[in-house]
Amino acid sequence: MSDKVLLVDDETDFLEIMAERMKAREIDVTTAASAKDALALVEKEGYDAVILDLQMPEMNGLEALKALKSKNPDIQVILLTGHATVQKGVEAMRLGAMDLVEKPADLKVLTEKIKKAHAKKMVLVEKKTEEKIRNIITQKGW
User: Fold this and answer.
1) φ/ψ (deg, to 5) at 102
2) Is-contact 3 49, C-beta < 8 A?
3) Cα–chain-centroid distance for residue 3?
4) CB 94 within 8 A of CB 100
5) Rounded to whole angstroms, how far apart are CA atoms 7 and 69?
6) What distance in Å separates the CA atoms of residue 136 and residue 111, rounded to the nearest whole number?
7) Which pairing describes strands 49-53 and 4-8: parallel, antiparallel, or unpaired?
8) Cβ(81)–Cβ(106) under 8 Å?
9) Is 77 left (phi over 0), alpha (psi -120 to 50) or beta?
10) What is the pLDDT of residues 1-52, one digit of tens each?
11) β-strands 77-81, 49-53: how paired?
12) Helix (H, G, I), strand (E, B) or coil at 96
């Protein structure tokens, strides 16, 4: 099963090149050119990871991260930035980002992080499923 990724960046050339390179590595990638488009896509589809640019004009990556986490606390978000600072990194982690990667991103490193995000998502889904089953069993009193 391929990893399902939402790649969000306002630089369309970057989106096209990265999406093409990810698809060549058999990653199922969807692109969005704005945080608002990404939020709409996340409401319709589930992704193993959202890779989000930190610097975007309408809504920056930290604001988008906050909105994504408020809708789905389990969503795995990797922030991309060409302007990394310790303060932004700390704030991103505090808001629930899985990682912060500097541009230009090494695709091998990014692919490893996507695989970690997928594994983390699977663990969270498994825990929630076990909890639902436990609740059903205790409520039914079998």
Assistant:
1) -80, 140
2) yes
3) 11
4) no
5) 16
6) 38
7) parallel
8) no
9) beta
10) 689 999 999 999 999 999 999 999 999 999 999 999 999 999 999 999 999 9
11) parallel
12) coil
Taking the CA of residue 104 as centre, how many other CA atoms within 13 Å lie in the half-sphere pointing to its CB?
Answer: 5
Cα distance between residue 95 and residue 64, in whole Å: 10
Q: Are 38 and 52 in contact (CB under 8 A)?
A: yes
Question: Among 6, 77, 15, 74, which residue's Cα sits nearest to residue 42?
Answer: 6
CA distance 68 to 72: 6
DSSP 94: H
Query: How far from each other are the two terminal CA atoms of the chain, in whole angstroms?
Result: 36
Q: Are 77 and 98 contacting, i.e. CB atoms less than 8 angstroms apart? A: yes
Q: Which two tokens stand for residue 76?
A: 């795995």
CB within 8 Å of 133: residues ≥ 6 apart: none
Whole-angstrom Cα distance, residue 62 to residue 58? 12
3-state secondary structure of 12: helix
The number of angstroms, rounded, from the C-alpha of 141 to the middle of its chain's C-alpha atoms is: 39
pLDDT at 1: 62
Q: Quote the percentage of the chain above a pLDDT of 70.
A: 98
Could you tell me if 78 and 98 are in contact, meaning their C-beta atoms sit under 8 angstroms apart?
yes
Q: Letter for the amino acid at 40?
A: A
